[in-house]
Amino acid sequence: MPRVTHVKKARKDNPACKRGESYYWWKFRFGGKHFSKTYPRSSSLTQSSFLSQVYELNERIEDMEPESIDDLRFEVESLAEEYRTLGEECDDNLSNMPDHLQDSSDAGTLLQERVDECENVATELESIELDIDEDELKAEVKNDLGEDAKEDEIEEELGTRVKDKLEELLGEVQAQQYEGG
Known about the structure:
mainly alpha; 3-stranded antiparallel sheet
């Protein structure tokens, strides 16, 4: 990865900022300078198409803020499909290599590891039970608050517990990221 440099005050305008503003810049060995007002994400700091896509998917997982269980379920399904597609692309690249290089070369081994890891992440994401039983939670709330609890108190506590459960599920999803090379 390239070294990222932070400039506190720009001497002149550049693509990221005006004169006097702070910015970050980085440069790859072969290529021009890249500029950003914020510290660049991992996906911007690699020239590998595969790693850039993986980092983007991992960043999407980290940045998830679902409003409901349906939003979370949709996003997880989408991510799992994209990891599978990425794995299939690596598998296609592996299949296009000469047979004697597929098993014996470092590139062939790396591609096979990427295929396996993408499939594992997709499978792990899909195996997370993304359901919240609101009727069961409501019964627990009624039991915890007692029989004389008002309906608005019950609804408020139920909303809090649904939100807590959603955060718990989000934590499980965020634990499933591509870790390989």
